[in-house]
Amino acid sequence: MMAAGSPDARQPRRPVPESGILMVLVGIALLFEVLGWVIQHQSFLLNVDRLLIIVLQVSIVGLLALGVTQVIITAGIDLSLGSVLALAAMVAASLAQGADSYHPVYPALADLPWIVPLLAGVAVGLAAGLINGALVALTGIPPFIATLGMMVTARGLARAYAGGQPISLLTDRFTWIGGGAKPVVIFLAAAVVLHLALRHTRYGKFTYAIGSNPRAARVSGIRVGRHLIVVYGVSGLLAGLAGVVTAARAASGQAGMGLGYELDAIAATVIGGASLTGGVGRIGGTVIGTVILGVITSGFTFLGVDAYYQDIVKGVIIVAAVAVDMRRQRRSGKA
Amino acid sequence: MGGGAQSEAYLLELEGIRKSFPGVLALDGVSLRLRPASVHALMGENGAGKSTLMNILAGILQPDAGTIRLHGRAVTIESPRAALSMGIAMIHQELSLMPDLSVAENIWLGREPTRSFGLAVDHARMRRSTGDLLERLRIPLAADARAGDLDIANRQLLEIARALSLDSSILIMDEPTSALTERETERLFELIAGLRAGGTGVIYITHKMHEVSRVADEVSVLRDGRHVATHAAQELNGDDLIREMVGRELSERFPKQNVPRETVALEVRDLSLRGEFTNVSFRLRQGEILGVVGMVGAGRTALAETLFGLRPPTSGEIVIDGRACSIDSPHAAMRAGLALLTEDRKDSGCFESLSVLENMTMACLTTRYARCGWVRAARAAEDCRRLTESLHVKTPTVTEQMGRLSGGNQQKVLIARWLLTNPRILILDEPTRGVDVGAKADIHRLISRLAAEGMAVMMISSEMAEILGISDRILVMQAGRVSGLLERSESDPETIMRLASA
Q1: What is the ipTM of this complex?
Q2: What are the DSSP calls for B432-497, one per residue?
Q3: B330 touches chain A (CB under 8 A)
Q4: Among A10, A24, A98, B62, which is most exposed with the fewest C-beta within 10 angstroms?
Q5: Count of Cβ atoms closer than 10 Å to residue B454 Cβ
Q6: Could you say which residues from 55 to 94 on chain B have a Cβ atom under 8 Å away from some Cβ of chain A?
Q7: Which long-range contacts (CB under 8 A, 24 or more apart) does A104-109 make?
Q8: Sign of CA dihedral A106, A109, A111, A113
Q9: Is B353's CB within 8 Å of A212's CB?
Q10: Which residue, among B204, B198, B161, B156, has the nearest Cα to B40 in the 3D structure?
Q11: Do A71 and A131 meet the contact criterion of CB atoms below 8 Å apart?
Q12: How do beta strands B473-478 and B289-293 pair?
């Protein structure tokens, strides 16, 4: 008798939430294509090397963006990622030096298998993330402040670690990790894992629930504090991985690595449709947001535009993305 | 009201108002007329279009078609500000106060009295006029109190005071008594009577039949976005009205099917929470519905929250199935077989940005659907569809966003959430607050059935009819203490009121 109200899964499917932002990406790419023919008399897109470089140069920021996406879904923020990347890069590099190093950090630990620095870097990131999470979950310090503290502290540790000196002459086995297109592979693999985790696991459902309504999450039996610690831990872990890849690619560890990357990562996430008020956001959107940043950087370089102007445009795009998102929320929120 | 009604000009006339949202026609040519110095009640199930209609009047939404005439002149109400300047004030069902501001600041927000050529807020004058206003309305609030510190009932009173401070000619009240005690409700009715005598037209949205006959001159019924009927309040017949609202007969308003068993499911011994309640003891048997009544502030909600591990008790013991339990979190409470439907759906119930499916299955992901952390989506969707059907949840799909459902349907989804956890003890805090008549009957039927199946149910409610209708025993609380425990046979409204207000 309730035929009209009976819910049915086989309704016409709504468009994928990422389709809007994908159109933006295509639009920007086509714009550069047209400008490319007009100004440089060559194609922007029909160039395999360029397309690879676009993704390659955003893979590192992309790894950070994946982590911060889930933090933002919980209505939090993580400002420490760039600094944690640098610290992880330093630690990883110090354990990846060859026996021929000029000033080894640990002379006794030369020529270790490549897995050791990899795991050490990831572990450093994880530890930093867990501390962030514990600060947020157990002390009630706002995420902005807790991770700001970690941002400054981790950068300081990265500088102090080798007395301010870069760490170089790393083993070939280790630098192999960052070679060729491997950062892209790592980034995309991490994206697939996180996408599945957020959409199809209990971990993901709880993450969205906490961001949507933390009190209701607690009443529903979710151990909110414990879960937040894990979420920030995963974010730190990815920053650690990004640090390892950065060190491997540069064949060195430098304390200034990843400076300001956390802001690019947050920007990519927000462009990708995540809401800073929590409960909303998707890995697919973040990946596209990351690629948009890459296309803009690459496109302007291709056109010969000064880096200063690139930042101006990036800033405008970030604000515009949020403005569009707010309008969308207002329309769907009030029924 | 009087003889000259025919020639009397209308204060407000709505004609053929239409409004559609993506996928829904919320209002389909609704007309409504409000006379000056009268109270016009507006009834209908949740989702009937009452709130949409009122949001149009308050300038929050724009109609797709139709005319609004104010004092006989056609007007367009393009914003809430425009509505206010035309003398239309609305008291929202969802409270809209600034928690960090004082009572006075909330009342005068946006139109604070100023001094020094408008550069500074004249706090002294603001406090004085607040005092006058509250005095005149006989609302016992301190002008300096922080709005966030007030309980729901007092926040509601503050909301009313703010609307009345505008000297509006039309006042819209959306279920103003849902959080008020009987005494506060009585005072509100006196207030309304006073306003009516002064010429104000009041549109009064409610679900409560007795309120209509108590305050209204006329009553209009909406159903599925259409105007069904308008009656003079004297010729009102409750059953007709329910039929008009629901479109079907409600055979039994309070079906009672359960018989309590002997086994004690939950025993509470001398439970105390400092500042909230003291030495509360009672037993809840399997298959029993224990009603809990008390004025706002009697400690009922705090008791429920303590039992469910949301607040640690200061002292006392909770015994479940004969074993003393230490319940220090909702997680632990759920493992002990408890479930709690919280009082405030929006604040601590719904995940509005998530789907109906996710809302319904969130509390039992671990126990029911997760295998090594992976959610078995097909099974979850299957259960969700089954429950939305059996509980008559009106939603286009199980993937619909929770925030788009009406209050009654959200409540059913939340009840379903707890049923999926297979609780042995179900605590319900105001399960039918802000829920329409049809959904309410559904919920009552469901509670009775669950108890009949052996579940122990503790139901907190401020609605006397509901408490008397389905409880096996009634626990009365007064100022943090148990002031009475009545058997069904010995409970009547007078006894309960006497114990609750002693």
Answers
A1: 0.84
A2: TTT--HHHHHHHHHHHHHHHHTT-EEEEE-S-HHHHHHH-SEEEEEETTEEEEEEEGGG--HHHHH
A3: yes
A4: A10
A5: 16
A6: 60-61
A7: A105/A162, A105/A167
A8: negative
A9: yes
A10: B204
A11: no
A12: parallel
Set of chain A residues whose Cβ sits within 8 Å of the Cβ of B331: 221-223
> In the structure, how many helices (H) and strands (E) does chain B have?
17, 24
**CA atoms within a 13 Å half-sphere pointing along the CA-CB vector of B312:** 3
Residue B287 · residue B456 · CB < 8 Å: yes
- Name the residue facing A213 among B351, B374, B417 (closest C-beta): B351
How many angstroms separate the CA of residue A10 from the nearest CA in chain B? 9
User: Dihedrals φ, ψ of B29, to 5°?
Assistant: 70, 55
Name the amino acid, one letter, at A72: I
Q: Do residues A233 and A136 lie in contact, with contact meaning Cβ atoms separated by under 8 Å?
A: no
Instruction: Output the CA torsion sign for B458, B463, B467, B469.
Output: negative
Cα–Cα dist B453/B113, whole Å: 61
- According to DSSP, residue B86 is labeled T
Q: Are strands B338-341 and B425-429 parallel, antiparallel or unpaired?
A: parallel
Structure tokens at A208: 């969205």
What pairing do the DSSP bridges indicate for beta strands A252-253 and A167-168? antiparallel
- Answer yes or no: do B354 and A212 touch at CB < 8 A: yes
Query: Does the reported pTM lie above 0.90?
Result: no
A114: number of Cβ within 10 Å: 20
Token representation of residue A60? 């590192």
Note whether A218 contacts B: Cβ–Cβ < 8 A. Answer: yes
Shortest CA distance to A19 belongs to which of A298, A316, A284? A284
B92's CB contacts (< 8 A; 6+ apart) are: B159, B174
- Tell me the CA distances in angstroms from A75 to A142, A275, A321, one per residue in order: 11, 8, 18
Distance (Å) of CA B363 to CA B305, B331, B355, B368, B391: 17, 9, 14, 9, 18
The pLDDT tens digits along chain A (335 residues) read: 333 333 444 444 555 677 778 888 898 899 999 998 988 888 888 888 888 888 888 999 999 999 999 999 999 999 999 999 999 999 999 999 887 777 777 877 778 888 999 999 999 999 999 999 999 999 989 999 999 999 999 999 999 998 888 998 888 899 999 888 899 999 999 999 999 999 999 999 999 999 999 999 999 999 999 999 999 999 999 999 999 999 999 999 999 999 999 999 999 999 898 988 899 999 999 999 999 999 988 888 888 888 788 888 888 887 887 787 677 666 554 33
What are B305's two structure tokens?
Answer: 């929250």
Tell me, rounded to whole angstroms, the distance of Cα A310 from its chain centroid.
Answer: 20
Which residue in the set A209, A215, A335 is minimally distant from B354, CB to CB? A209
Which of B365, B389, B422, B442 to probe by mutation at the A interface, max A CB count within 10 Å?
Answer: B365
Chain A nearest-CA residue for B403? A333
Ranges of beta strands (E only) in chain A are 167-168, 252-253
Backbone angles phi, psi at A186, to 5 degrees: -60, -45
Identity at A16, one-letter amino acid code: V
Residues across chain A: 335
For strands B425-429 and B456-460, give the pairing.
Answer: parallel
Placement of tokens 């078995």 in the chain: B376
* Greatest pairwise CA separation for chain A in angstroms: 83
Nearest-CB residue to B373 (from A203, A212, A334):
A203
Closest Cα partner for B365 from B350, B345, B383, B353? B383
Cα separations in angstroms, A72 against A77, A267, A268, A274, B220: 5, 11, 12, 7, 46
**Among positive and negative, which fits the CA dihedral B262, B266, B270, B275?**
negative
Which stretches of B175-328 are assigned E, i.e. beta strand?
A: 201-205, 218-223, 226-232, 264-273, 277-285, 289-293, 315-320, 323-325
